[in-house]
Amino acid sequence: MPPEMRAMMHSFAEAGRRLSPVWRAALIRLALVWALLLAVFASDWAAMVRQWWDISTYNHIVLVPAILAWLVWQRWPELEKLEPRLWWPGLVPFAGAAFLWLLGAMSGLDLAKQAAAVAMFGAVVPLLLGVRVSAGLAFPLAYLVFLVPVGEEMVNLLQTITAGITVALTHLSGVPAEIEGVFINTPAGLFEVAEACSGVKFLIAMIAFGVLAANVCFISWRRRAVMLASCVVVPVLANGVRAWGTIYAAQFFGVEVAAGFDHIVYGWIFFALVLALVIAGAWRFFDRPLDAPVIDAQAIAKAPWLGRLETRPVPARAVLAALAAVIVAVQGWAYTADRLAAPVPRQIMLPAVPGWTRVDYSPQIWWEPQAQGADHRLLGRYRDGQGRQVDVFVALYARQGEGHEAGGFGQGALPPSSPWAWQAPGPDFAGGKSERLLGDGTVRRLAVTWYRNGSLLSGSNTRLKLAVIANHLSFRARPTTMLILSAEDAAQAPAEQAIRRFRASTGPLGPWMDRMTRVR
C-alpha cells in the first residue's frame, strides 16, 4: 500500500477514535443510508462498475473513489470543527434525484439512472450532515459527477474534429489527401478515424484531472479556467497530431508499420505524454500554498447566508421515514410503468408502394439494422422503373424499457460488430436522422431513421424518450415503430435521390407507418 494511502487510512482511524457523539451518530446514519441506496440501486451501481472496468473510455473512473476519499481526508481537520445537523430541506434535492432515476427507468436511459444513483448518494449528505458541513464538502460532492460513465455521446463529433485536424496537417505536410466524413484517402491507402481513435477517453480523463488540479493547485479563478480550457483543447489537438503522424509515417514505411507503432503508442502512453505536457505548462502558475488549509471551518461556521438556510431540528426518524417513502414511491412507479405493453398485431407485412416493386434483398455487403427486443422486424427491398433501389427496415415494439429500446445504444442503422462504419451525417430528411455509412471501405450507404409513437414522428432519440416518459408517467401504453429507409450509393442512382423518390411515393410518412404496423 502506498505511504500516502496508509497515512490517509491512519488519519481516518485516528479521527474515528476522537469523534464526538454528535459526529459519530451522524456518520452512522449516513453510512446506513448509503448502504440502503447501494442495495436498492445495486443494478445501476453494478452496471457503472462494469463500465469502469470493461470499457477503456471509463477505466480512469476506478481511481475516482480513492480521489474522493483523499479530498475528504484533506478537509477533515477543518470539517470536524463543524457540528453536523439534520437538514430536512435536503429531501428536495434527494427527491429530485430520485425522480430523475424514475425518468431514466421509464425511458430506458441507463445514463439518467446512473447519474441519479450518484446524485442520490451525494444528496443525502446535506440531508444528514447539514448545510455547513456540506459547504465544506462542496467540491468532493461536485466531483461525484465523475463517477458517472458519460462521454461516449461525443464520439461522432470528436471523430469529425480529429479527421478535420488530421487532413489539414496532412495537406500542410505535402501529402495529397481527400476526406469523406471520418475517412481519409491518401496514396498509402484509406484511413478511418474510428471510434476508438476519436480521443474521447483521453478527453474525459483529462477533464476529470483538470477539474481536480484546478481545485487543488490554484486559488485564482482565472487560472482555474485556463487550466480547464487546456485540458479540453490540448488532448483534442494532440489526438489530431497523433492521427496525422500515423498517416504521414504510412506514406514512407507502409500502413502496417505505421499502424503497429500507433497501436503501441496509442493508449495510456499517449495519455501520459499529454498529461505531462499540460502539467509542465501549468506548474509555474500553481498559486495555492502547500500549507494552506483547503477549507476554512471558522468562515463556514460564521457565514450568515448558511445560517439563513438552516432550519429548526426535526427528529431523525421523520427524516429517514420521508427518505424511505421517496425510494418506495419511485421504485413502485417504475415497476408498474415497466410492465405497460401496448397490443400489437400478430403479423405485419411490407406494403405495396405505388411505382415500386418488391425485389429480392441482395445488398453488396450484408446490412441489417439492430432492433433488440422488437416484437416484429421486417427488412425488404423495393425497386422502381428507373432501377432505383431502396431498402426498408421496420421494427415494432409493444413497449419501451430495458432491452426494448428503439433508440438505445447500438440500436438502429449502424449494426455493431459489422463491416459497416459511420462516415458522416447525411442530408436533411424532414426530421429524420440521416447518416452516411461505409462498408469495408468500398460500399457507401445512406440510412434515414424515423421513430413513431402516438402522434410523434421524429428521428430524434431524445424526442422519442420524452414521449415514452410521458406515456409511462400517465400509465398509457403505446407501441413504438422504428422505420429506416436506406439505399446504396451509386453514380447512376444516388442514394439520396432514391430515398426521396420513395418517400414521395409513400405519402405522409406517419400514417403510412401506422397502416403498415396496423397500430391504428
Description:
- By secondary structure, the protein is α+β, with helices and mostly antiparallel strands.
- The protein folds into three domains: 3-149 and 303-337, no CATH class; 153-285, no CATH class; 356-517.
- Helix content is 53%, strand content 13%.
- It is built from 19 helices and eleven strands.
- Strands 4, 5, 6, 7, 8, 9, 10 and 11 form an eight-stranded antiparallel beta sheet that branches.
- Strand 7 and strand 8 form a beta hairpin.
- The longest helix is centred in the middle third of the chain and has 33 residues, at 221-253.
- It is flat and about 85 Å long.
- The N and C termini lie far apart (65 Å).
- The relative contact order is 0.09.
- The model has no long low-confidence stretch (mean pLDDT 90).
- GO terms for molecular function: hydrolase activity.
- InterPro entries: EpsH-like, Exo/Archaeosortase_dom, Exosortase, Exosortase-1, Methanolan_biosynth_EpsI.
- It is found in: Cell membrane.
- The chain crosses the membrane at residues 56-73, 85-103, 115-148, 160-179, 199-218, 225-245, 265-286, 318-336.
- Keywords: Cell membrane, Hydrolase, Membrane, Protease, Transmembrane, Transmembrane helix.
